[in-house]
Amino acid sequence: MRLPELFLERMKELTGEEYGLWLDAYDKPPAQGIRINPEKITPEKWEKICPWEIHRVLWNKNGYYCQPGSHPAKDAYYYAGLYYVQEPSAMAPAAVLSVQPGERVLDLCAAPGGKSTQLGADLLGRGFLVANDISPSRGKALLKNLEMAGLSNICVTAEPPQKLAQVFEGYFDKILVDGPCSGEGMFRKEPELIKSWMNQGPEHYVPLQREILTSAVKMLIPGGRLVYSTCTFSREENEGNVEWLLDQEPDLEMVPIPAFSGVKRGVNGQPVLRLYPHMVFGEGHFVALLEKKKTSGTDGLTVRETPKKRWELSEKSEVLSLEKDSDFKDWERLYSRPLDRERMMVRQGQIYLLPEKLNPAWKLRFLRTGLLLGTIKKNRFEPSQAMAMALKKEDFAQCLCLDREDERVIRYLKGESIFLKEGESFLKGWVLVCVDGFPLGWAKAGGSGLKNKYYPGWRWQ
Q1: Among the options 231, 399, 401, 434, which is catalytic?
Q2: Does residue 314 have a pLDDT over 50?
Q3: Does the annotation count 231 as an active-site position?
Q4: What is the pTM assigned to this prediction?
Q5: CA 281 from centroid of its chain's CA atoms
Q6: So where are the chain's domains?
Q7: CATH number of the structural domain 393-458
Q8: Which fold has domain 5-292?
Q9: Handedness of CA 247, 249, 252, 254 (dihedral sign)
């Protein structure tokens, strides 16, 4: 791999006597990793059923290395949302932020969703996550990954950070800023980034990173924590930005991050994390943890007012009209959990279950508000793929549970018809298709088989 001379000079200064070891790492293959989804499976259970050889990632309790040739993205367990395929060093920022159930969390630069899926899963269904990306096209990939993970208490937006700060000032308990950067830590995995670096190096990104960080700080509650991370080695984009932010925001202070084997500290001894490919089995990352000081006379919480009118009366009336929709009622009878009508919203025929405290009246560009339950089409109800992924097997009365080795699993994921075997039968209506007890999607019973309702945009290619 041919690396730019200017980049090599800067890295020689950064790594010192370890420069040779760092450079040698670029002749080795990149690490492959997965991070399991605690909403669906525990590490103990995953280690029993995992079909390939794995070993733990030090800095993330849910992270694992996969051996070359594992192909984790071509497995039924991936389609069941049991894990997310993620570069191992990129698992560090969300782990450092340490989200707790019930918190309000923001991932400010979220696409494609690797870190958001962890933040959302760590909430364990309580509190909610706002996952934002300024690009609506990238936001669609972000939404797919959140829905595949089975997360329901989410809000996906596509807004500039400054716009979010106008709505959410002093609102979030935890914020992650994995900022756009020069990408030096990804050169080994994605060599095409080298050309981009030569056109737009660290100096291009620093002003943008500072603008994003300034907005992020405004959205923290007193006592709230912010993780700033990048996948670059540049001092200007990393320690330089942290030093600048601490100087600009006197209410912020550095929180030391516990070290682990192989990690480096900051250039000037800052208690941040630097992950290098010659020190850890991963590409490269920078992580800093900051906290907004609690102001005198507060308990760390600010008053968070929301508009009194959550949605238009006509939309709320549509929720009430579902009581008369026989197709929706048939589906609901098979669903074992009670649905909170006060949190339901109908817009343009689509039914949403809103996270608690989420207000769809906020003037934001939403790609998703909560969990899409399904769509009313010509007087019939079709449950969504997102709803299937948010369920557990025991949540739905009609389930077809297939073994991972059953050839019908791949046929289902490819959108083909599913034929039933002896002893398998269903009454009419919706059926939840599962692999080893983990939901994959919907089918509809009829005759000797099931009509495949797996979402076309997610099909096995």
Answers
A1: 231
A2: no
A3: yes
A4: 0.94
A5: 22
A6: 5-292, 313-361+373-388, 393-458
A7: 2.30.130.60
A8: Rossmann fold (3.40.50)
A9: negative
